[in-house]
Amino acid sequence: MNRLSVELPGLSLKNPVMPASGCFGFGREFSQLYDLSELGAIMIKATTVEPRFGNATPRVAETPGGMLNAIGLQNPGLEKVIEEELPWLEQFDVPIIANVAGSYEEDYVEVAREISKVKNVHALELNISCPNVKTGGIAFGTIPEVAKSLTKKVKEVSSVPVYVKLSPNVRDIVEMAKAVEEGGADGLTMINTLLGMRIDLQTGKPVLANKTGGLSGPAIKPVALRMIYEVSQNVDLPIIGMGGIQSAEDVIEFFYAGASAVAVGTANFVDPFVCPKIIKELPELMDRLGIDHISDCTGRSWNKHARIAHYRP
Amino acid sequence: MINNELCTVVSHKEIAPSVFELILEGELTSSMNEPGQFVHVRVAGGIDPLLRRPLSIADIIKEKNQFTLIYRVQGRGTSILAGKRPGDKIDILGPLGHGFPVSEVKPGDTALLVGGGIGVPPLYELSKQLREQGVKVIHVLGFQTKEAVFYEDAFRQLGETFIATDDGSYGEKGFVTDVIKNREIAFDCLYSCGPIPMLKALKNAYGKDKKVYLSLEERMACGIGACFACVCRMSEDPDDSSYKRICSDGPVFAAEEVLL
């Protein structure tokens, strides 16, 4: 028995660990370092209809236990992702979760419709929470009605299950989760980055050219855990958890909070081998903690009986 | 090939105020070939500071499995690095990026190597390799003051070397571009690393008629091309989205290729 396998809508994962969108490009760079087939899945970089250059540099700044980024959804555009990046990824035995972004509802719908037809795309991640683009993104992620309506529109055209990526920069994360559940989401991914800033002492100006950026890394882990803990008890959707994960211990903590799989983001920049390392370390840690199967511990922090079957065919 | 290895500190000393020469030993030295590549240094375990520091490779000593990094203490990460002693282990990822193309010059050609401040170090390995293939090297190195000058003798052993200082306290007063102009230095190919205004001046002065290669820097996260933090725009940009990643497409580019 594979103790690490996870079944989620659209996704049969050999293990619950995947790189988070925006931290792994389209996999090419990391493929020089290890076999991408070792991963549970890959969340590819956000794709928009047209190619985007993104924001001016500097785009990153370090913070205690974390970093700020304001890349601005740089990507080669829908056509190139479909014609070049996704076919290249076919050589690996790994399901792809395509992150879908845009400025307007039509953009999201077009990207979702086209990219979900690609063979190795097993699910979509609807990016309604990028804090670094001027239009779209953040509004879709902070107003429940808007998020619900967009989810519905995307669900209508998508050939694969749709996970909605939630922003932590909201008044009530549970309200947002419920809204996208009503909109027909198949799952949630959470959390995206927290909006932050750093200021240069010499110039007196923000370090990032975009002024503000998304905070990620270990610094945001407690926020992610709290939000997953709250949301998982209030909606009936599986959650792919993320936010500062860098070890097998962190993975189990996220499962206990209510996650059914996890994504690793910033830690890939610190240790590019971190995903395979975590996958390798999980079974031993599960032995120590008395966990037979990884899925058994989803929501253990709030449900002592829990084996929660999330999969709804 | 990119390796990740705990390298051992062989020696570590301050060679100018706040500028340190760090010699490391590790197997990954055998993968270092192009001058101008860099390594991504994790200065401490734990999460503070979290990210690695990109530092250019100043010297490759293959027979000893050693390489040299020269860096300036600038912030918290480099301050921690400065505390490493011989025998300590440092987590190194590398070699990374694409360096200076040494095959652009033929034996007998003259290469002009222009460095500014903490941009000087990668030119040392470049100069060594050019010399080995029979290329004549001339160095023009700019520093802020006399005290800030380092590796002058090392460069002199490889070829003619001119020093410029901002305040005129040593060598010639002024910019490196003034030195090149005033001395009418002739060359076939120009290689440079240093502050952006200097690179811009060199590109404007020589980019049209000569082969000019520039090493750029930018704040980085991953260092391997995946995060898109360190991009620059390209000169040819038909759809307003053309870019190069400084870490993995560079850090060295042909001057006409990129916008500065």
Q: Could you describe the 3D structure shown?
A:
The complex is a heterodimer of chains A (313) and B (260). In chain A, strand 13 (239-241), helix 8 (248-257) and strand 14 (261-264) form a beta-alpha-beta unit. With 313 residues, chain A is an alpha/beta fold. The model of chain A is unreliable at 308-313 (pLDDT under 50). Chain A is built from ten helices and 14 strands. Chain A has an eight-stranded parallel beta sheet with strand order 3-14-13-10-9-8-7-4. Chain B has 260 residues and is of the alpha/beta class. Chain B is globular. Chain B has a seven-stranded mixed beta sheet, with helices on both faces. A six-stranded antiparallel beta barrel of chain B has the order 1-2-5-4-3-6. In chain B, strands 13-14 form a two-stranded antiparallel ribbon. Chain B has helices at 76-82, 121-132, 152-156, 176-182, 196-206, and strands at 3-16, 19-25, 38-42, 53-61, 66-72, 89-96, 110-116, 136-143, 160-165, 172-173, 189-193, 211-215, 231-233, 243-245, 252-254. Chain B starts with a strand and ends in a 6-residue tail after the last strand. Helix content of chain B is 16%, strand content 35%.
Secondary-structure topology with pairs:
The complex is a heterodimer of chains A (313) and B (260).
Chain A: E1 6-8, E2 11-13, E3 17-19, H1 28-31, E4 42-47, E5 60-63, E6 66-69, H2 78-89, E7 96-100, H3 105-115, E8 121-127, H4 138-142, H5 144-157, E9 162-165, H6 173-182, E10 187-190, E11 194-197, E12 212-216, H7 221-234, E13 239-241, H8 248-257, E14 261-264, H9 267-270, H10 274-289
Parallel strand pairs in A: 3-14, 4-7, 7-8, 8-9, 9-10, 10-13, 13-14
Antiparallel strand pairs in A: 1-2, 5-6, 6-12, 11-12
Chain B: E1 3-16, E2 19-25, E3 38-42, E4 53-61, E5 66-72, H1 76-82, E6 89-96, E7 110-116, H2 121-132, E8 136-143, H3 152-156, E9 160-165, E10 172-173, H4 176-182, E11 189-193, H5 196-206, E12 211-215, E13 231-233, E14 243-245, E15 252-254
Parallel strand pairs in B: 7-8, 7-11, 8-9, 9-10, 11-12
Antiparallel strand pairs in B: 1-2, 1-6, 2-5, 3-4, 3-6, 4-5, 12-15, 13-14
